[in-house]
């Protein structure tokens, strides 16, 4: 080994490039491919593990999260991609970097890879920083990633002068709150905490806002003049975004690099990439594969929606057929569902046109909506192979006025949900059960319950993490039942 | 529009692009000369796209690029496309790419201003004076509050300096954020900024109306939300209670009930009264008279639900989104899409903005010799400053550009 630099586990994860050039020659291509394939398998298993648990549960219960993490670590170890001795980190870097290349091809692939990587990194990060008393190690990693000047501790003076201790509204004259009791700063959950200690400022850091995007967009951090002021425990979460952000940029840049184009001319490498991708799509529950089918078309949408669609899509269809219009987010959600469900593009266009035309002319439809549908089907612009939005994405939505996208089970208030289910003629007791699940924040369980009601059947272990799973499983179930009926009929 | 109006409109547009459209200023602005050496061909790598009418049909021309003002004007005035008479309706500004934009080539978008877009129809559920694309002086106040709330967030929180505020010509405003580091930002940075500026207001069926407000005490909310509340409440009485009487609207009532229920203020008597009363001030007084620790937070939610800026996030978050540029003519209203002073949005009245027929009339009164150009390689002399109803807006634009390019004194 030429490189005598001490390899810290954690930094090895972050600093891939320095090792790449020196070590690739030494790693047998077949070994490399096997390592990559093992990783993909591990990533997917962990990914499934995470998606089975509802987001809310994870956040609320640190014990549960710990359990989840140790399960994940076990999976990673099974495929030897979690930790090991010296040489491991070199292999780890090589495999990771090679996978980055294999997934750089399109934004969609990049997103997929980053989703995988998020779990691994998060778990490694937790483990590494678990017992850290000071923030020195964390800060060191930050500085390595961002450069020395990008993150600084704040001074006493900044603390005193820059930071609002409390904002006061003129009509609130509440003397009991002493000024300075609360400090309005990045404390993780868009809330204030009591910081009375004179030395609190030592635990705050300052960095340009673009280094902590997640905290900024969720309004979790105090901003001034383009700088985010971050409390130490939030800093850990931010690290993940910085790391993944860097990775995304690196991967996106690959697409435009001359070297990448050259690499793609190498048959052997391309074969390896293909092999990796086959492993990936082969493992996934059918949802990422493309297929086309005829049973779902412009004329059958209505009925199929009633029989096989999850509530979120059924609701969109209902609103579309009443209003003859859907706003952008709703159109995206339903069109990508159509695509993933195998509806042909011409049928999707025909159906949307049929609905919209009751309000606007065909010419206006073609002008304003056609491109969007074709784009979603990957026929325009970047020609990406988009997929149906996942449940976790839909649940994060907060539909505004005249918008009907997102997850109705989560977004609706209980009264509205109850009314809607009643209009669908579900039984009182069933509705009650669904509402109870909703109130306990078990939205996906409630959705599974609806699946069982629609299909009048029982399927244990069904996990709906994407509307398309609901649909596919419902279709499959229907086919099985049909088959059963046919085979049970006496032969003539 | 009847046929004659259509012909006049097209003829006026041609005259407008010839004499009144501030072509050199647009080029100066988008060159950002302070940051870019001429050899980088920064301006030429910018995508322009156009809506053109040929024989009554509308066509889009994407991925156009220009060397300078002369090239751009030549294109704007070109009324022959494939031997057919055509008119250029409007122009859109796109991203700056890594190379000269051309259709079909793999292009990487490098830079683009972040444009914050607010359309009046997003406020339809809380306004009673107009709906849809219509706008009046009363509606404008909603956008004025939006400007007042966004301004400190942009200038103080994000530390931005160069924001060009433009009235879209019909029912909305565009804030072009032009700071150099902002133009270079990735889609992820754009989304984060918009995420910070936006709060999602749920619809009448929603479980939570404003998700960002989960605290029981106002003092514990993020300062930007507190500040927004402080600004919005100064307008609430006039706009919501008096001008619009918004609280009588069915969906607004539903949302108020949801908010009151969540804050545990609602009781059957209050619910019944709110449903029966149709006078906003009375409803508001009734709510304010409730005795609860959470009253203030409920009031905050109601006020922000009515007045918080409703951004069209979609426009801002993608780097290569195309948007109508300043000083376009809005095809439906024929109003000029003019800049306004963000710090003084209350002085701006969208109904006072110049219209195309009007400025063309003023143009006709100017002596012919002013309108001649030296030779074919020059652009036509710019006469916008000679038109009284247009010149103040030109001045604003000019000030914006010169402020941008002024060297910083440290």
Automatic annotation (TrEMBL), chain A:
Keywords per UniProt: 4Fe-4S, DNA replication, DNA-binding, Iron, Iron-sulfur, Metal-binding, Primosome
A single Gene Ontology CC term: alpha DNA polymerase:primase complex
GO molecular function: 4 iron, 4 sulfur cluster binding; DNA binding; metal ion binding
A Pfam match: DNA_primase_lrg
GO biological process: DNA replication initiation; DNA replication, synthesis of primer
Superkingdom per UniProt: Eukaryota
Keyword presence, Iron: yes
Cofactor(s), names only, from the UniProt record: [4Fe-4S] cluster
InterPro entries found in the cross-reference section: DNA_primase_C, DNA_primase_lsu_euk, DNA_primase_lsu_euk/arc
The DNA primase large subunit C-terminal domain, residue ranges: 303-471
Similarity remark: Belongs to the eukaryotic-type primase large subunit family.
Protein name stated in the entry: DNA primase large subunit C-terminal domain-containing protein
Biological source species: Paramecium octaurelia
TrEMBL record, chain B:
Superkingdom, natural source: Eukaryota
One function term, GO molecular function aspect: DNA-directed RNA polymerase activity
Keyword Metal-binding: yes
CDD domains: AE_Prim_S
Keyword Transcription: yes
EC number assigned by the record: 2.7.7.-
Keywords: DNA replication, DNA-directed RNA polymerase, Metal-binding, Nucleotidyltransferase, Primosome, Transcription, Transferase
EC top class, as a word: transferase
GO cellular component, one term: alpha DNA polymerase:primase complex
Annotated GO biological process: DNA replication, synthesis of primer
Family: Belongs to the eukaryotic-type primase small subunit family.
Protein name per its UniProtKB record: DNA primase
């Amino acid at each position: 080994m030429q490189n005598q630099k001490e390899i810290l586990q954690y930094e090895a994860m972050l600093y891939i490039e320095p090792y790449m050039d020196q070590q690739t020659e030494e790693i047998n291509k077949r070994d490399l491919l096997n390592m990559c394939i093992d990783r993909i398998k591990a990533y997917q298993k962990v990914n499934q593990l995470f998606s089975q648990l509802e987001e809310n549960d994870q956040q609320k219960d640190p014990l549960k999260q710990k359990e989840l993490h140790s399960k994940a670590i076990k999976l990673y170890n099974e495929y030897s991609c979690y930790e090991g001795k010296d040489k491991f980190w070199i292999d780890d870097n090589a495999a990771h970097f090679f996978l980055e290349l294999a997934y750089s091809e399109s934004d969609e692939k990049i997103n997929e890879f980053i989703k995988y990587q998020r779990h691994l990194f998060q778990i490694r990060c937790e483990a590494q920083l678990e017992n850290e008393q000071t923030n020195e190690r964390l800060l060191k990693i930050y500085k390595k990633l961002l450069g020395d000047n990008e993150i600084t501790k704040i001074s006493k003076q900044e603390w005193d002068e820059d930071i609002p201790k409390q904002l006061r509204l003129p009509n609130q004259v509440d003397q009991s709150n002493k000024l300075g009791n609360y400090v309005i700063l990045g404390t993780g959950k868009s809330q204030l905490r009591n910081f009375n200690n004179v030395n609190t400022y030592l635990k705050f850091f300052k960095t340009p806002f673009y280094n902590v995007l997640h905290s900024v967009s969720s309004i979790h951090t105090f901003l001034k003049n383009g700088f985010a002021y971050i409390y130490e425990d939030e800093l850990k979460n931010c690290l993940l975004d910085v790391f993944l952000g860097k990775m995304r940029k690196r991967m996106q840049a690959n697409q435009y690099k001359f070297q990448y184009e050259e690499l793609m001319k190498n048959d052997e490498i391309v074969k390896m990439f293909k092999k990796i991708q086959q492993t990936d799509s082969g493992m996934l529950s059918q949802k990422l594969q493309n297929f086309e089918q005829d049973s779902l078309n412009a004329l059958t949408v209505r009925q199929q929606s009633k029989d096989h669609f999850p509530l979120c899509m059924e609701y969109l269809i209902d609103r579309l057929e009443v209003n003859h219009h859907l706003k952008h987010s709703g159109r995206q959600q339903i069109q990508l569902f159509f695509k993933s469900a195998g509806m042909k593009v011409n049928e999707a266009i025909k159906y949307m046109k049929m609905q919209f035309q009751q309000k606007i002319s065909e010419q206006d439809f073609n002008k304003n909506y056609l491109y969007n549908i074709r784009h979603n089907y990957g026929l325009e612009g970047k020609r990406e192979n988009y997929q149906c939005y996942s449940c976790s994405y839909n649940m994060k939505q907060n539909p505004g006025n005249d918008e009907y996208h997102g997850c109705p089970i989560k977004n609706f208030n209980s009264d509205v949900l109850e009314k809607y289910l009643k209009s669908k003629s579900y039984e009182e007791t069933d509705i009650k059960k669904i509402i109870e699940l909703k109130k306990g924040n078990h939205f996906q369980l409630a959705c599974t319950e609806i699946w069982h009601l629609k299909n009048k059947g029982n399927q244990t272990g069904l996990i709906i993490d994407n509307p398309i799973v609901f649909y596919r499983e419902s279709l499959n179930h229907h086919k099985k039942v049909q088959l059963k009926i046919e085979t049970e009929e006496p032969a003539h | 529009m009847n046929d004659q109006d259509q012909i006049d409109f097209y003829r006026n547009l041609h005259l407008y692009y010839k004499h009144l459209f501030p072509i050199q200023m647009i080029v100066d602005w988008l060159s950002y000369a302070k940051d870019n050496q001429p050899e980088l061909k920064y301006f030429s790598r910018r995508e322009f796209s156009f809506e053109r009418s040929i024989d009554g049909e509308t066509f889009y021309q994407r991925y156009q690029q220009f060397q300078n003002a002369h090239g751009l004007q030549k294109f704007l005035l070109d009324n022959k496309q494939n031997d057919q008479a055509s008119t250029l309706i409007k122009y859109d500004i796109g991203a700056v790419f890594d190379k000269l934009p051309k259709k079909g080539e793999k292009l990487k978008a490098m830079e683009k201003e972040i444009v914050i877009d607010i359309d009046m129809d997003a406020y339809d559920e809380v306004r009673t004076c107009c709906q849809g694309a219509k706008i009046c002086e009363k509606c404008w106040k909603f956008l004025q509050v939006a400007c007042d709330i966004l301004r400190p967030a942009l200038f103080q929180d994000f530390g931005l300096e160069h924001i060009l505020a433009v009235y879209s010509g019909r029912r909305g405003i565009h804030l072009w954020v032009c700071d150099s580091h902002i133009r270079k930002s990735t889609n992820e940075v754009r989304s984060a900024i918009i995420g910070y500026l936006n709060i999602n207001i749920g619809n009448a069926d929603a479980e939570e109306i404003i998700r960002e407000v989960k605290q029981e005490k106002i003092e514990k909310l993020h300062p930007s939300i507190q500040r927004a509340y402080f600004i919005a409440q100064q307008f609430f009485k006039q706009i919501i209670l008096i001008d619009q009487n918004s609280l009588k609207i069915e969906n607004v009532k539903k949302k108020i009930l949801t908010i009151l229920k969540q804050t545990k203020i609602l009781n059957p008597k209050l619910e019944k009264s709110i449903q029966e009363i149709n006078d906003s001030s009375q409803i508001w007084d009734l709510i304010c008279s409730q005795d609860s620790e959470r009253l203030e937070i409920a009031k905050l939610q109601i006020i922000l639900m009515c007045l918080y800026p409703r951004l069209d996030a979609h426009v801002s978050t993608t780097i290569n989104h195309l948007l109508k540029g300043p000083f376009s003519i809005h095809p439906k209203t024929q109003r000029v899409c003019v800049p306004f002073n963000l710090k003084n949005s209350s002085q701006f009245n969208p109904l006072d903005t110049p219209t195309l027929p009007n400025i063309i009339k003023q143009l006709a009164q100017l002596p012919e010799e002013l309108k001649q150009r030296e030779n074919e390689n020059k652009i036509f002399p710019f006469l916008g400053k000679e038109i009284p109803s247009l010149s103040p807006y030109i001045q604003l634009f000019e000030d914006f550009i010169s402020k941008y390019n002024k060297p910083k004194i440290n």
